[in-house]
Amino acid sequence: MLLLAAAFLVAFVLLLYMVSPLISPKPLALPGAHVVVTGGSSGIGKCIAIECYKQGAFITLVARNEDKLLQAKKEIEKHSINDKQVVLCISVDVSQDYNQVENVIKQAQEKLGPVDMLVNCAGMSVSGKFEDLEVSTFERLISINYLGSVYPSRAVITTMKERRVGRIVFVSSQAGQLGLFGFTAYSASKFAIKGLAEALQMEVKPYNVYITVAYPPDTDTPGFAEENRTKPLETRLISETTSVCKPEQVAKQIVKDAIQGNFNSSIGSDGYMLSALTCGMAPVTSITEGLQQVVTMGLFRTIALFYLGSFDSIVRRCMMQREKSEIANKTA
């Protein structure tokens, strides 16, 4: 009886793997496609633009710093695969004025055609204890990390629905999957992206438009270097429990998942575990993805408890060290 049940389970899983490609999104062809990347002048955004350019896409780079944009354009153009490809640069702050962002997208579409894929990569991180952060910091991060993704997406979504083709990528963070010490402002702004993406996917899926939310870990970028300058000790020690990824590695995975229409994009075993643990009511791209999440949830939750326990231990040790230091200073 046990063998029969096991055989049935194996047959059921194999059937799911065979059926899954039939109901999954059709991959987006990048050759000749128009890809818009916000925050594309450096870091993950620039590497995503390079990866798409290598596959034959036309690129529109959007960022604030015009000098950095022009430098990024030169780097990207080295990877062309034909002489028809174009890299267009537009300098604008995507978090300030929706009308300005909408006009920029219109300009890009007039020159390179309708947007086939939008990658929302503009963002920043500020860390610090909740009571030490200025209220303006919370407002700034919501503006840049959340509204800086809402505005470009709002500007392209109507055309994508009319054409019944498109991909929108939101670059969140692993700190947008679980809250961590020192990231009260940053995590909240990145958590907001997940809620936006889940609701938007429900609206646009009937129009063959698919949303991808990327959750990169700590990545070796200029933004990460800037973040480390003011990172609290507890936050830094928690970050050191995982390795720092290369932006090229992260970019390849994000582009791959976006092309396939996968809702979640994660990097490495830690990233996969986090995505499975925090999937909640998030949509799945295939039956097999949903089955994997159901099967692995129990095991990953057990592992996660050890992770969280180690994080708590780090925070407690830092607090005890500070208390000892304060006592020593008082008695000196």
Automatic annotation (TrEMBL):
GO CC annotations on file: endoplasmic reticulum membrane
The keyword NADP appears for this protein: yes
Top class in the EC scheme: oxidoreductase
Domain of life: Eukaryota
Any GO BP annotation: sphingolipid biosynthetic process
Physiological role: Catalyzes the reduction of 3'-oxosphinganine (3-ketodihydrosphingosine/KDS) to sphinganine (dihydrosphingosine/DHS), the second step of de novo sphingolipid biosynthesis.
Similarity field: Belongs to the short-chain dehydrogenases/reductases (SDR) family.
The name this protein goes by in its record: 3-ketodihydrosphingosine reductase
Organism name: Aotus nancymaae (Ma's night monkey)
Lineage: Eukaryota, Metazoa, Chordata, Craniata, Vertebrata
